[in-house]
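Researcher: Let's do a round of design. I'm pasting the structure tokens now; please hold your answer until I've finished.
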């Protein structure tokens, strides 16, 4: 048992609050020291973060809250660099923040602190990048189907509610009936 424990590398925890233009980063090193900084959503800042994480002793587990599509470039870069990336549920984060600080007050450094605390407690999900996992084409196809079906429904409702009643007021009776009726 002692041999197994001696061979494990220290784990550095990284919490990133994703936003549109800049991200709040909170890093807890394996010795307990914390470092906080902001970074923009740009390739040079991604490179600086990756080089900093590569220089740390041990492995890094990076937690982030998926926000729109803003998290995808950074998560992809972290995964391809060999870091473990996990995601935090936004609803769980909001409830945890409310319980932790006893308020709904929200800001980026506080969110990064909540993400780090949830990471330390193990309340996260494994992040799966669609490009790396090979689901990207399927995901894009599903999004396209959703867009087309939503547009089709909008056109149908527009016809039923606006255009057809002008010329065929009784059309609503026949729109959803079958030939057997």
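Researcher: That's everything. Go ahead.
Model: Designed sequence:
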């Amino acid at each position: 048992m002692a041999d197994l424990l001696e061979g494990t590398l220290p784990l550095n925890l990284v919490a990133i609050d994703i936003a549109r233009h800049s991200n709040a980063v909170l890093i807890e090193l394996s010795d307990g020291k914390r470092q906080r900084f902001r970074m923009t959503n740009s390739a040079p800042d991604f490179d600086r973060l990756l080089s900093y994480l590569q220089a740390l002793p041990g492995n890094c587990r990076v937690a982030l809250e998926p926000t729109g599509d803003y998290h995808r470039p950074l998560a992809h870069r972290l995964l391809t660099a060999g870091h473990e990336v996990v995601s935090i549920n936004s609803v769980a984060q909001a409830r945890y923040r409310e319980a932790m600080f006893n308020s709904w007050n929200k800001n980026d450094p506080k969110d990064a602190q909540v993400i780090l605390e949830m990471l330390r407690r193990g309340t996260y999900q494994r992040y799966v990048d669609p490009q790396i996992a090979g689901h990207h084409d399927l995901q894009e196809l599903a999004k396209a189907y959703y867009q087309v079906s939503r547009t089709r429904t909008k056109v149908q409702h527009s016809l039923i509610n606006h255009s057809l009643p002008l010329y065929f007021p009784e059309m609503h009776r026949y729109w959803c009936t079958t030939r057997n009726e």
